[in-house]
Design a protein that fits this description.
This protein has a domain of 172 residues: P-loop containing nucleotide triphosphate hydrolases (Rossmann fold). Helices cover 30% and strands 27% of the residues. It contains 8 helices and 12 strands. Helix 6 links the parallel strand 9 and strand 10. Helix 4 packs across helix 5 and helix 5 runs parallel beside helix 6. It binds adenosine-5'-diphosphate and magnesium ion. Magnesium ion (MG) binds next to helix 1.
Amino acid sequence: MTRTELPFIAMHGITKRFGGVVALRGVDLEVGHGEVLGLVGDNAAGKSTLMKILSGAYQPDNGTIRIDGEDVTFADPEAARDLGLEMVYQDFALVPELSVTQNIFLGREITRRRLGVSTLDQRQMAKRARELFERIGIRIPPVTTPVRALSGGQQQAVAIARATGFDCRLVIMDEPTANLGASAIDKVRETITRLKASGIAVILISHRLEDVFAVGDRFVVMKHGRVVAERAVADTHADEIVSMIVAGIDPRDRPPGDQSASPQPGP
Ligand SMILES: Nc1ncnc2c1ncn2[C@@H]1O[C@H](COP(=O)(O)OP(=O)(O)O)[C@@H](O)[C@H]1O
Ligand SMILES: [Mg+2]
C-alpha cells in the first residue's frame, strides 16, 4: 500500500505479555482518517489487547504509537480520549441504574454556575444526548430512562453515543453485534456508516465477517499475537479471510512455486 500522507494512527512493534502469556508479539497497525477497519482473528489472537493499548486501558511492554506522526503514550483511557480515541467495550460498561443521559455524561458532567454555586446542567446534558442519538441515527426512549430498561440494541446505542460524543476521531468497537438481533445489527452498521461519513475512523472487532464486508474498508487478520494479513474489502472474499484466520498466514506472502511452510512460523 502506498501512502502519500501520514496515517492517522500508526502502531509499531507493539508487544504485550501477561505473566507467562505473550498476547502481542510485535504488531504493526495503521489506520487512516475516517477508515473503517475490520480487525478479525480467532479467540486469543490479541485483538482486544491491542485495542485496549490503543485506547489507553493497557500499556504496551514495547512499541510505539503515533497519531498524525506524533509519538504518544497513554497513561490511562482519559489520555487517549483527550486525543479523540474512544473504545466501546464488549459489555458496554454502562451503569444500569443510571439514566441514558447520566451514563453518557458519567465522569464529564456539564455544569453551570448559578449564584456562585456550581450545579449540574441537566437540560444541557439532555439536549446534547438527544443530539448524539440523532447524529448516529438511532431512536431510543426518553433520555431520562434508566439504562436497565433498554433493550440490548438500545444499550449498545447508548455506549456508542457515549463514545462518539466528544471530539471523537476514532471509535473502537469490540464485538458490537455479538449479542444483537438482526434489526439492531442493521442499526450498528448504519451507525458505523454515519460515523465514517462524518470523518470518524472505526475499528470494528468482529467474528461476523459480513459486517465488515457491509461497512468496512479493510480487513486486518491477527493470529497468535501477530498481524498475519491485510486486505482491502473490495479485494477479497469471505473464504479467503476465513482461511487466513485459520491458517494464520497470508498466501500472497509465499513466492510462487514455493512449497515450504509458513514464512511466519507460529509460536
Ligand atoms: N488481563 C489479562 N490477563 C492475563 N491474560 C490476558 C489478559 N488479557 C488478555 N490475556 C491473554 O492474552 C491473549 C490475547 O487475548 P485477547 O487480546 O483478549 O484476544 P482476542 O481479543 O483476540 O480474543 C489471550 O491468551 C488472553 O488469555
Ligand atoms: Mg477479544
